[in-house]
Amino acid sequence: MRTLSQLKFREKIGSSFGVLIALIIVNALVSGLAAGSIVHQFSIKHDLQQAISEVDRVRLIASGYVNTHSRESAQQVFFRLEATRRQLDRIAVTLDDAQLRAMPAQLDDFKLQFQKYMAEADQKAALQSRAVALGQRMVAQLGEVQVDPRELPDRALADNVRGHVQELQWAGFGMQANLLNASMDEQMAGLRSALAQLDQSSAAPSRNPQLQRLLFRVQRDARDYVASFESYLRYRARNQATEKELTDISDAIQGGFNQASASVGQVIQQRIYGASALMATIFLLSLLSALDGRNAAHCAGQPASPRAS
Question: In this structure, how many other beta carbons lie within 10 angstroms of the beta carbon of residue 273?
């Protein structure tokens, strides 16, 4: 009977240690799988942070182009957009997210709107340059006119026209500096008023053919000057609307990356907590199995109690 009892204790000890070894192996496997999963999620989060940095660079360089209209800045914007797309493609291989699926279209839209902004800015600059050239030509033409000092009416007429041309130019400079959200009519009021005064002064009679031809050319250039600024204002308004569209699109792209990064961060936390709880449970089971085996060994080493005679 003693031999049979010892065999049962040995079997119990063996099974307890077998369970302990199995739990240790399971714990190692769980730890490895959990660590691998968490490292993978951290890698995705790092890629998302890199993509957010690329979007920040795009926004910064685009803002630089708005201020400088540098072609180098424009090329950098396109380069960074492609870098962002490549980063997005790498992330999409391992992360399926609704926000990320919408981003290729948003990146294409940003590129299209930026190209539109560039075209509008070029047209606006061309109109501004034309207005400046017309203003300089009017001043040069008035400087070339020859008026007989004895012809006081002609001399007064030329002086009045010069004064109104200067008023017209000052109105143009003031309109360019005015960035208030006013209507086109409000912004053009000064220019139109100066043009009306110039037309009124130029209508005065003169017996000097050269002065008459000069006044005709100045009036023609003055009307072109005002028309150029009207077109300039239209393109400036379009440019401002496109700039706002670019800001909205870049905000949406950055917001999508931030949301995806936050979701991955939540997954990392959940997996860390889950893995920690599972490993703690396995550790407790291992501890209980070890205690059970120790108790069995202790019982096996004790002598059998004598029977009553």
Answer: 10
**CA atoms within 13 A of residue 289's CA, in its CB half-sphere:** 17
Q: Domain coordinates of the chain in residue numbers? A: 2-95+102-297
Place of tokens 């100045």: 218
Q: How far is CA 237 from CA 9, 125, 224, 232, in A?
A: 92, 13, 20, 9
2-95+102-297 maps to CATH 1.20.58: yes
131: buried, middle or exposed (CB in 10 Å: 19+, 13-18, 0-12)?
A: buried
pLDDT digit string (tens) for 214-266? 778 888 888 898 888 888 888 888 988 999 999 999 898 888 888 887 877 77
Residue 54 burial (10 A CB sphere; 0-12, 13-18, 19+): buried
What pTM was computed for the model?
0.69
Q: What is the pLDDT of residue 153?
A: 65
Nearest to 95 by CA among 254, 253, 271, 259: 259
Say how far residue 119 (Cα) sits from the centre of its chain: 20
